[in-house]
Every structure is written in C-alpha cells, then in structure tokens.
Predict the structure.
Amino acid sequence: MRKHKHDTSQAATQDLGSGSVGGLLAQLAIPAVVAQVINLLYNIVDRIYIGHIPEVGATALTGVGLFTAILMLINAFAQLAGAGGAPRAAIAMGSQKNDVAERIMGNCFTLLLCMAVVLTAVFYFSAPTLLRLFGASDATLPYAVAYARIYILGSIFVLLVMGMNPFITTQGFSRISMLTTVIGAVLNIILDPILIFGLGLGVRGAAIATVFSQAVSAVWILRFLTGKKTILHLRRQNLRIEANVILPCLALGVSSFVMLSTESLLSISFTSSLSRYGGDLAVGAMTIITSVNQMAVLPIQGICQGGQPLMSYNFGARKEQRVRQTFKLQLASCAIYAIAFWALIMLAPQVFASAFTANTELVSYTGWALRIYAAGIFAVGFQMACQQSFMALGQARVSLLLACLRKLILLIPLIFILPHIFVGNQVMAVFLAEPISDVTAAIVTVTTFLLRFDKILKQER
C-alpha cells in the first residue's frame, strides 16, 4: 500500500515537469479561476443581499463596506503564510524534497493558528474605533460594527481556508482546491437570504452565514491534508515552528502580505477622502466599486495560482524552457481577460452598479465613478502576471518592491494629492488616482520582469 501511494505521488509531481505546458496550465488554472470566482461570491453576495434590505439597504451596504479594510488585513495575514509557504513547498517538491515541503506546510499551519488568536482579540475590541476612523458616520456605524464583530470571531476559519488552500493547489490538486471554495460559497448563498430576510437578522445574518460557510471549508481542507489522497501530509511532528523553515516562507510571503495590507490602507484612504469630499453617497459608491474591482482581479489571481505550481516546480527542476512557456501563456491569459473586462465596464458601468442596489441615485453616481476608477484596469493583467511570476520564482525582494510601487508609492499619495490639483471636482480627482497608478505600475513591473527574467533562470538554487 505504501509503495503504491509513493508511486502515485511521484507520478503526480512528475507530470508538472513533463506534460504539455498548455494543457497543464489549463488543468490547474481553470479550477483555480472557478475557485476565485466562487470566492468572489463570498465577498459580494453579502453585499448584494444587504443592499436590497428594505428601507435601510443603501445605508447598511455603506456600513458593511467600511469593514473592507479590516477584512483585507485578515486576508493579508493568511497570505503571509499561504502565498509564502506554498511556492517554497512547490520548489522543494521540484527538487524531490517532499519531507522539506511537509515541514513548510506544518509550520505555516501553526503560524496561522497563532495569528488567528492575536487578530481576533485585537480587531474585536478595536472595531468600533477603527470603523469610525475609516469614515463611518452615525448612520452607518451600527451596521458596520454588527457585521464586523461576528466576522472577526470567525476569522480563524478565514485564515485556515486562505492560508492552507494554496498547499492543495501547489500539489496539483486544483479540483480539490476549487471544491474548498465551492462548498463554502454555495452554503453562503443558501444561508444569506434565510438569515438576512427569513429570520430578520439583517447584516448580522450575512456575517453568520459567511463565518459558518468558511468553517465548513476549513474542515474540508484539514480532512484532505490529513487524508490518504494528498501528497504532502499535515503531520504532528511538523507543527513545531522552526526558524530556518518559517523565515524563508515569511520572506517570500511578505510581498503578498504587503499587497493585501496596503489594499486595506488603500480602502481607508479612499473611504476617508470620499467621506470628506462626497459624503455617504460617495462611500457607498466605493463599496460597490471595490466589489466590481474584485471581479477583475480575482480571476486573474486564479490564472496566476494555476501557473504558480507549474512555474515553481519547473524552476526547481531547472527546466527553463517550460518556465518560459508557462509565463507566456499566463501573461496572455491575464491580459486578454483584463482588456475584455475593461471594455465591459466602459460600455455599461451602471449594469454593474444596479446589481448591488435598487437606489437609483446610488446606481447613477456609481456608474459615473466606476468609469473613471476603471479606466486603466486593462493594465492590471500585465502587472499581476509579472508580479505573481516573481513570486513563483522565489524572488521575494523584487516582488515586495513592486507590490509597494502601485499602492504605497503611487496610489495612496495620489488619492490625497490630486484633490488639491483638481479643486473643481475633488471626488473625481480621488477616483482618477486609480487609473494613473494602474498604468504606471504595469509599465514598470513588466519592464522590470523582462529585464530580470533570464538572470533569474540562470541563478543557483
């Protein structure tokens, strides 16, 4: 039995180094994209239902949108372990060191549990103060706090799902990884209307539905990683954190952490500026725009998640041509999707807005703002394909610098600078910061990657 299991594991990993690159990328990326689209439902279904609560929908939607900054921070800590550990595990597997890969996975699991304890305590008690700081008004604060505190109590499940699921994908089990999010999302979609409208729990019902759904997904992941089908097993002897194992993972994961944590800072910057110049209406529009932006970004992340194990494995196995092929296909796929989505937004922005609210004033305002905000979204496909390729190749330092470029160096300063330049329409100026940053960051990231790609492939590892 053991021999058969070992042979199966070898065949599964060997295929990444010998099968058709296009076929493997499709095999890995399609389930990952589906998983990300379904994961998107976690983020937007609550908002769609909340936005249609009779009489208070628009106000409740704005309040829940203010929680985005905290949600992004929780996700960022999950990525610190998952996005840092999974590529390291894949590179170890490519070098035929599955025991090292299992130690990496075990250490990351323990780290996620430790982070869950700290984050739950900190965010639960500080939620009202933080939400007020983020731009909550007297009208929106009660909804924001009600949703936030329930979600925060279940953050351990969010961390485990986001942090451990990449270890399933990186072994080549993309369908299992997809099912993780399918199970949770379907539960969430079923429970939302029952709890929000049927039981009259409002925003609390939306939060309870999300937490319960994530808990089921977390159990699914743990059962798989401790079961018979997985290549890498979550073992008790690997749970003790070792500095020489976890620190390289953190060094690589810090790029994804910065990307998501600065997304939180970005959310705070947008909502505080828009609250100042446009009031609750502008903040409500930004809540919808954030969800539409996720529709653009998450499928691209799915494509890159599919490419990551293929690129990392072949990089570890020194198969340069296969790494190049994977990158080219990943770049083309990401670019085509981003350009197509940009065209849809430019043609019919109000269609996106009307999905979230029946409030005609908010729909009209969001349609106008979305066209400005998304004017440069076509460039995101190029930027993310190269950014994530740096991650797959273990280039933590460069990846971190480029992660900082778009948000910390460009976007956040522009949010505060542009309203002082375009004083005639300061709200427009805030939204205009996004396309300027998108295009500039894409040019710099693509240029940097193309200049460094050959050197990375030749380096010792």
Q: What stands out?
A: The longest helix spans residues 243-316. The CA atoms of residues 35 and 178 lie 4 Å apart.
